[in-house]
Amino acid sequence: MPEHFHVKPSDVSERQVTVSGEEARHIATALRHKRGDRVVFVDGQGGEYECSLEAVSSFSVTARIINRSRKGREPIRQVTLAQAVPKGTRMDLVIEKGTELGVYGFIPLVSQNSVIRPEGGLPVPGEAGEGRQARWQRLAVAAMKQSLRSVLPKIHEPTELAKLWDQCDAYDLALMADESEKRLSVARAFSELPANKEVRRVLCIVGPEGGFSEEERQRAADKHVRLVTLGPRRLRAETAGLALAALALAQLGELG
Question: Would you tell me how many other CB atoms lie within 10 Å of the CB of residue 56?
């Protein structure tokens, strides 16, 4: 399988792909590719281009398009994960592994019990000068290439949970993982849907280390968000987010 690299849609013409910057340096210097090598470029919007390298330098790479395709490995149905931002850099894991699983988009969430409030692109611990948003986007690009995806998940601006309720109507189903819920599993939430209801867009909501407040649970019920259990074991916030997204993708037939 040829290696995958990221390219902007504007760098793709009818017959060739032109890459500069970090990806060019990676191709030419780190991997030492040369003229004639076969690689694949993905544009983050579903375009996938199998190419033969024609000119290679650390400043610019030009490749001839041999074959192009659209969303060959992308889920047909969309799962968006609204994840309360955990402490430290644990959100990195959510972005990276969620992208690999096939998550369509990420909404960094701020709820009543949130400890981390990532407004304004706060610096990442240990990453001087780099904002969280920029780091998360960089991790998503790397995970997209590693997992052979062609669509780059959208990482939304941090959103207050109180504002997220207004967006729930845009989804066919909204699920909220809640430690106090003991009965309703993700599989059961899907099985209880009307037989004629088509589910193409699912919103998964996961809270912070301290869980959701009673007021937030009530507001979720008012918006017809289904509170679901993730099993008898207590999960870290970042584990819960990945588990809920994976269970939703599995129910949609997008995993295995």
Answer: 21
Q: What is the pTM of this model?
A: 0.89
Cβ atoms 23, 7 nearer than 8 A:
yes
Nearest to 254 by CA among 74, 72, 60: 74
CA-closest candidate to residue 176, choices 209, 203, 210? 203
- The per-residue pLDDT for range 126-173, each reduced to its tens digit, is 444 468 888 999 999 999 999 999 999 999 999 999 999 999 999 999
Strands 47-56 and 123-124: unpaired
Domains and CATH numbers, the chain: 4-70 (2.40.240.20), 78-251 (3.40.1280.10)
Nearest to 33 by CA among 6, 76, 2: 2
**What is the 3 state secondary structure string of 177-220?**
ECCCCCCCCHHHHHHCCCCCCCCCEEEEEECCCCCCCHHHHHHH
What is the chain's Cα-based Rg?
20
Distance CA 47, CA 143 (A): 16
